[in-house]
Amino acid sequence: MTAVAVRPAGHRSGRATGVARFVARRLVMLVATLFTSSFVIFGALYLAPGDAVSTLSGSRTLSPQAVAALREQYHLDDPFLARYFQWLGDTLLHGDLGTSITYREDVSSVIAARMGVTFQLVLYAALIIVVVGVGLGLLSGLRGGVVDTSILVVTTVFAAVPSFVAATVLLSAFAVGLGWFPAVGTGEGLAGTLWHLTLPAVALALASLAIVSRITRVAVRTELGREHVQTAISRGIPYPALVRRHVLRNASIPVTTVVGITIASLFGMSAVVEQTFGLGGLGSALVEASLARDVAVVQGVALVFVTAFVVVNTLVDVAYAVLDPRVKAGSRAS
Amino acid sequence: MTIAASVLDGVRTRRRRVAGNTVVVWVCAAIVGLALLLAVFGPALAPHDPDAADLTYANVGPVAGHPLGFDSQGRDLLSRLLAGARTSMAGPALVVVLAMAGGTVLAVVSAWAGRWIDATLSAVMDVLFAFPAVLLAVLAAAVFGPGLTAPTLVLALAYTPYVARVLRGAALRERAQPYIAACEVQGLSAFTICLRHLVPNIAPMMAAQGTLLFGYAMVDFAAISFMGLGVQPPTSDWGVMVSTGQPGVLQGYPAESLTAGLCIVVVVVAVNLLGERLSQRSEGR
């Protein structure tokens, strides 16, 4: 007889509502966070010293018609809060994020054209983090000895390598030096894309991979030392089953959290990697736009990044609640 | 290997590692100390003018008197690295001081007041937590223009919730200690108790957090300078040097980018290991 069958029916439904309440709570937080973030992104424009028109135009001299068009578009003659809600409405209902001064097109089409590369890059890096990071952590945690020590040393160093330094080293060694990978561009087709994005994705993943590996190692070690695992060992449960059933399931909880947070933060770091490898993604658009003080593009891209960050974090928290039956409604995943 | 043997083995390696750890900690402390000395005296130690360009020496390798050679504009690389130590560490240091100050105040107020103040502050921190630090800094640079002030303030603001969250836990544990109650019975004011008794007792935790934070701040700050939004060329700064060396990397002269990158990595590794050790000690108390 399995444990589930023994459980009273009420218990299961109680857990289901618990999870539902937790998910509902996280969704409310998601909306609150998105509201606040969009407010910060919108409000930043008006924190700048001087007139909003000069900030919006990046201190360029504009014709009176252009100034009037800007005032009209950003509703500069309305009160601040009205402006915010109009901007939010335009963004949410019409996908209208304004017009870029440097690209001379709609911000939404700038974003749409560049979104693909960034999402591919982040997805690729996320895969590397999950496979290599968790893999190394498991190896390190379960094996011990020389394997553990060498993985620990390598990940300690990798964790301190900023992605732009990693990108430069990889570019110098594998693209310029050995010529195994292309130095710039995105490539065509699946194979071409993979080939072009490998170095950038590794550069982006390196530090996070190291952190994930270290967390996985600690989680596995902690579980191995737990009493129920020791009991299972003494009961003679075969090692693979023991690891699968008693160690991995419990260790997966902190690991999921850290994987989620690091993947979510990849969006922000994609900027430097895209810049180094000449990939025309959202990140490089963000940097180019802030250098050119093209505020509309910066706002649009920042909004996309924050949304991705918050959504991924929420998904992780929900996954956490599903993975860990001990999570009660109201308690936080941390 | 049986499980029992591997567990025993783990215990043995842990013992050995404790001995190895002390050496590692001393090496890290030496590196951090050296880095701090360089931050103070580096610009004075530079053997040549870090900004003196001579294009006839562009990308020339090491020669007598110039042990690291020259960058793409024929400036002495060693001098630029030494001069860059100050700009690369002063900004992150200021970020840490500001974030630690803000985070400590919020944590202590939260832990002391409890009830709705604590709940409100915690909720605000959760929302602030959601904003990636680098993204906020880029946003600020777009609005205020590139420079050091905006990234410093913004990174400090973005790190404050991290500090506050960790220290709030520590402050709550101290708040529940009998010595705090004893102080309250003696009629000391809340401010005095916090300042004279509570904060000194969470100081080891603060030192650990501050050290770890310095590592993050250094990486983020360098990334912002790398993007061209922080320290402006021709000022020598490690993050900027990785960026200005990029054309050289593509032409097969990676010295400028790689040496500057190495400086960042070495300091950050040392700071991180030291910070981890400090936090282990503060928790193991």
TrEMBL record, chain B:
Subcellular location: Cell membrane
Descriptive protein name: ABC transporter permease
Family matches, as InterPro entries: BP-dependent_transpt_permease, MetI-like, MetI-like_sf, OppC_N
TM stretches of this protein: 23-46, 89-114, 126-159, 211-231, 257-275
Predominant subcellular localization, coarse grouping: membrane
Cellular component terms (Gene Ontology): plasma membrane
Topology of the protein relative to the lipid bilayer: Multi-pass membrane protein
Family: Belongs to the binding-protein-dependent transport system permease family.
Key word Transmembrane helix present: yes
CDD domains recorded: TM_PBP2 (cd06261)
Annotated ABC transmembrane type-1 domain residues: 85-275
Keywords noted in UniProt: Cell membrane, Membrane, Transmembrane, Transmembrane helix, Transport
Gene Ontology biological-process annotations: transmembrane transport
